[in-house]
């Protein structure tokens, strides 16, 4: 059964039965995933009470009034995540506090310009968000919407960049969306932008440069074409190893689990041999936990978003392999281009990718389409068997 079933005492939305005498409440505070036990039998009434408690916690976190020790006084996190006096958790308040603190350090005209950018641009656009909710994708989308020059855009970003650097230094956040990023061009994002797939030899080198859960994750990504958000939300309940299929039912975006945006996004995929092998190898690591298939090997906790994947697994693996860096989403482009280059049917590839029709495949990946073939999945499976790639160890 899926996570949403309440059979056996489990509940959706971050509340579930932990034992016969306790309920687990799961939420994120100050960029940290928190799991706290309530010493209550997981009866229907108590699970409902826990849901209300969690909703109240999330409301207070959103308002910046949450006090950990008031809800969980015996938890070790009550001390480590105690709210700093006067620390702002929403972007509008954090920007204003940072701006006030910079007045004695900057020229008057700079202070004035930063203030105008804060009040006229950033507070209306992102002010209501918590610091941890702003993503690089949101910033890129904002950049793409602008009609002014690139220099002006970079100047407008300066107070946001400065505030986030200070928040990182003060340990209010664990991830800074501005790290190693500077806007380089102003144009609407397109689905076919930056398609730069890995070659078969590069895929082989990448998989040879990692092992365990990291290898299983990347091999599965290369041979299913799932988006990163879909990969980290995949549950063992979505996997049918006997029938060799998986069902994509959800995506995890900014730590929030969501349903696919389109009907085509919810799909059942045939597992190609390398993807099947990766799942068989992954069973030993996470199947007994019964929920997310892929975990961060450093913490043995489910991946929360793509940031830790890039930092702790993907980037080090590419460096060891001596492969030119491309972002992890290129595994999806590699899957599509590999299948199409092998002569697989574009309609079948579109279904595997979760596109609503095959015309998007032609538009985005047309240069890799040599022909249309009816025996979908067989040619690329033969390619896997014949390219010399080491297979994942069976679990």
TrEMBL record:
<dbReference type="GO" id="GO:0006310">
    <property type="term" value="P:DNA recombination"/>
</dbReference>
<protein>
    <submittedName>
        <fullName>Site-specific integrase</fullName>
    </submittedName>
</protein>
<dbReference type="InterPro" id="IPR050808">
    <property type="entry name" value="Phage_Integrase"/>
</dbReference>
<keyword id="KW-0229">DNA integration</keyword>
<keyword id="KW-0233">DNA recombination</keyword>
<dbReference type="InterPro" id="IPR013762">
    <property type="entry name" value="Integrase-like_cat_sf"/>
</dbReference>
<dbReference type="InterPro" id="IPR011010">
    <property type="entry name" value="DNA_brk_join_enz"/>
</dbReference>
<dbReference type="InterPro" id="IPR002104">
    <property type="entry name" value="Integrase_catalytic"/>
</dbReference>
<dbReference type="Pfam" id="PF00589">
    <property type="entry name" value="Phage_integrase"/>
</dbReference>
<keyword id="KW-0238">DNA-binding</keyword>
<dbReference type="InterPro" id="IPR022000">
    <property type="entry name" value="Min27-like_integrase_DNA_bind"/>
</dbReference>
<dbReference type="Pfam" id="PF12167">
    <property type="entry name" value="Arm-DNA-bind_2"/>
</dbReference>
<feature type="domain" description="Tyr recombinase">
    <location>
        <begin position="193"/>
        <end position="382"/>
    </location>
</feature>
<dbReference type="GO" id="GO:0015074">
    <property type="term" value="P:DNA integration"/>
</dbReference>
<dbReference type="InterPro" id="IPR010998">
    <property type="entry name" value="Integrase_recombinase_N"/>
</dbReference>
<comment type="similarity">
    <text>Belongs to the 'phage' integrase family.</text>
</comment>
<dbReference type="GO" id="GO:0003677">
    <property type="term" value="F:DNA binding"/>
</dbReference>
């Amino acid at each position: 059964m899926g996570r949403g079933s309440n059979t056996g005492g489990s509940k959706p939305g971050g509340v579930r039965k932990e034992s016969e005498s306790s309920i687990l409440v799961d939420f994120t505070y100050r960029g940290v995933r928190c799991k706290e036990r309530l010493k209550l039998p997981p009866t229907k009434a108590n699970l409902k009470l826990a849901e209300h408690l969690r909703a109240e916690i999330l409301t207070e976190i959103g308002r910046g009034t949450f006090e950990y020790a008031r809800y969980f006084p015996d938890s070790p996190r009550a001390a480590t995540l105690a709210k700093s006096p006067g620390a702002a958790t929403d972007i509008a308040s954090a920007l204003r506090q940072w701006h006030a603190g910079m007045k004695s350090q900057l020229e008057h005209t700079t202070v004035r310009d930063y203030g105008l950018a804060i009040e006229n641009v950033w507070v209306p656009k992102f002010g209501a968000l918590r610091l941890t909710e702003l993503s690089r994708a949101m910033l890129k989308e904002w950049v793409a919407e602008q009609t002014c020059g690139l220099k002006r855009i970079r100047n407008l970003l300066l107070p946001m960049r400065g505030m986030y650097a200070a928040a990182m230094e003060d340990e209010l956040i664990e991830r800074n969306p501005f790290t190693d990023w500077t806007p380089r061009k102003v144009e609407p994002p397109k689905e076919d932008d930056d398609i730069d797939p890995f070659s078969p030899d590069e895929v082989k080198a990448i998989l040879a440069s990692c092992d365990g859960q990291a290898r299983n994750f990347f091999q599965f990504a290369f041979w299913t074409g799932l988006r990163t958000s879909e990969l980290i939300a995949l549950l063992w309940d979505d996997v049918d190893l006997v029938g060799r299929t998986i069902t994509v039912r959800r995506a995890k975006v900014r730590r929030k689990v969501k349903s696919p945006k389109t009907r085509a996004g919810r799909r059942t995929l045939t597992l190609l041999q390398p993807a099947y092998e990766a799942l068989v190898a992954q069973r030993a690591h996470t199947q007994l936990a019964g929920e997310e298939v892929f975990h961060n090997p450093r913490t043995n906790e489910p991946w929360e978003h793509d940031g830790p994947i890039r930092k702790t697994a993907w980037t080090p693996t590419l460096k060891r392999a001596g492969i030119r860096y491309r972002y992890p989403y290129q595994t999806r482009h590699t899957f599509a281009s590999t299948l199409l280059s092998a002569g697989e049917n574009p309609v079948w590839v579109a279904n595997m990718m979760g596109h609503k029709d095959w015309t998007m495949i032609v538009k985005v990946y047309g240069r890799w389409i040599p022909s249309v073939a009816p025996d979908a999945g067989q040619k690329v499976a033969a390619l896997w068997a014949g390219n010399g790639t080491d297979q994942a160890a069976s679990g």
